[in-house]
């Protein structure tokens, strides 16, 4: 079973993500965080336990407490302590060229995706996720 973290405070996108994974009949464990700080704390506690870490993180950029950019800064410092490689996908409703360019300059980011995500995109990520 693949483990996904969704770090997003948009309840509609969270609902749609759950539904899409369910309809696609993917065997997943989805954990949702509504801000980057909570997700970072969870990752820090699980850093040396690969079975508890996600295979994939879907990360929104605009959130309260700690936004996606702040999460990426903190995660970049933490990445070397992770006991497995985690793919991080930025998911944004913005199609801002500056955000896309900025995301491409951050080594821990796998890709920048525009909301909403299609079922085929979930399947592609699910099939490619490192386990």
Automatic annotation (TrEMBL):
Keywords: Phosphoprotein. It comes from the Bacteria. InterPro entries: CheY-like_superfamily, Sig_transdc_resp-reg_receiver, TCS_response_regulator. The modification 4-aspartylphosphate is found at residue 60. PROSITE patterns: RESPONSE_REGULATORY. PANTHER family: RESPONSE REGULATOR RCP1 (PTHR44520:SF2), RESPONSE REGULATOR RCP1-RELATED (PTHR44520). This is Response regulator.
């Amino acid at each position: 079973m693949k483990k996904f973290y969704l770090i997003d405070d948009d309840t509609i996108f969270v609902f749609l993500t759950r539904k899409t994974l369910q309809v696609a009949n993917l065997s997943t464990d989805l954990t949702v965080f509504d801000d980057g700080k909570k997700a970072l704390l969870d990752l820090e506690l699980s850093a040396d336990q690969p079975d508890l870490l996600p295979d994939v993180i879907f990360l929104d950029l605009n959130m309260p407490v700690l936004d996606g950019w702040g999460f990426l800064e903190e995660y970049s410092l933490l990445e070397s302590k992770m006991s497995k490689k985690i793919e991080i996908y930025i998911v944004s409703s913005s199609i801002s060229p500056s955000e896309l360019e900025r995301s491409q300059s951050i080594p821990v980011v796998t890709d920048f995706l525009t909301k909403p995500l299609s079922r085929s995109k979930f399947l592609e990520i699910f099939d490619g996720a490192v386990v």
